[in-house]
Amino acid sequence: MPDLRPALSAALPAVKSLPECADFTKTVTPYLPQLYDLPQNIFNNINNLEALQHVYLSTNPLVTGLGFALFLSVVVLIVSEINKNYSQVDRLWSILPVIYNSHYTLWAHLAGLPTQRMDHIMAVTILWGARLTFNYWRKGGYQIGSEDYRWNIVKDYAGPTAMFLFNVVFISLAQNILLFAVTTPTYVLLLCSRITGNELTTWDSLFSKLMFVFVLIEFFADQQQWNYHAAKNEYKKTAKVPKDYGYTREQLDRGFNTSGLWAWSRHPNFAAEQSVWVALYQWACWESETYVNWCFAAAFSYLVLFQGSTWLTELLSAQKYPDYKIYQQRVGRFLPKASTQSMEAPRDDAKGNGKAKEHTSKAVKATGSTKRR
């Protein structure tokens, strides 16, 4: 195979300092016109692997990723409208960021750039994707016809026309662009590697380990949730508290998990999920010696998306489970709060506690004593 590295000058900016690596006008804007010619270049060389490699390496890697995201948006839109199933992006959620970060790493290897940092990013992203893919699979997410229950709520509220527009703008396009955008800090880090070389910095070690810790938190949160619902399903079938899981009858009657990590956060998995991509963004900031850079928009949008998604999830949970509002008062949505209180503690709310006190008072008068549950 011929040396493809000469194409590097056409694909990457000649950055001279670390802050320049995060300069949108120098590292992104000049290469956006490549997006217009990319489809034609691929089509013209579709049967020539060597020529395709040259197209791949001579195109800015950020532009290649963006082009793939736009192409996929069209595919997802068509499939979702044919099937009237709006969980197509949900099925790709754990896969696409892995593809994008692996793409940056592959590009760096082919271009002869320093790759130790890129290999670390790809490795932790693969672990993130494997965990999320496995958890989505075991919940039945990849079964034919499966769809997130929240989309039915949105469909009933919006109606056919509004739902189609929502699908075009948000579900198919915006979400695909977001999954590409949250990996753009990797592009900044790729550019930084041209200056710092192949030696890992303190920030490389810190943020790669931090992202790994967040993935571990997600894993434990998911497993605790899985165990709880397995115990709850068994309890519903037998009316007996399963001994293998360690939950009490009161916890299972509640209907939602409030133990383990869930005793400190109402959504520990969501909190860690957002932290993974905020950490990647911060990694790019520290390496490029910038307090804020253009990748902030993607990280912030990811947080906004989870705020909206969590709000709808909790709205439905509060309607389904009587004690959920008490849970909301006692435990923080994502992060633990100073006033965090266990759901096993006595109630202080007016309605629940008032009824409990009234019941206890009558029991004392009738028996002269109280009995522990």
Automatic annotation (TrEMBL):
| Membrane spanning residue stretches | 62-80, 92-114, 157-182
Q: Where is this region: Disordered?
A: 338-373
Q: Which domain of life is it from?
A: Eukaryota
The reply to whether NAD figures as a keyword in the UniProt entry is: no
Claim: Ribonucleoprotein is one of the keywords in the record: no
**According to its UniProt record, what is one Pfam family this protein matches?**
DUF1295
Keyword annotations: Membrane, Transmembrane, Transmembrane helix
Q: Where is the composition biased (Basic and acidic residues)?
A: 345-361
List the GO cellular component terms.
membrane
The identity of this protein, by name, is DUF1295-domain-containing protein
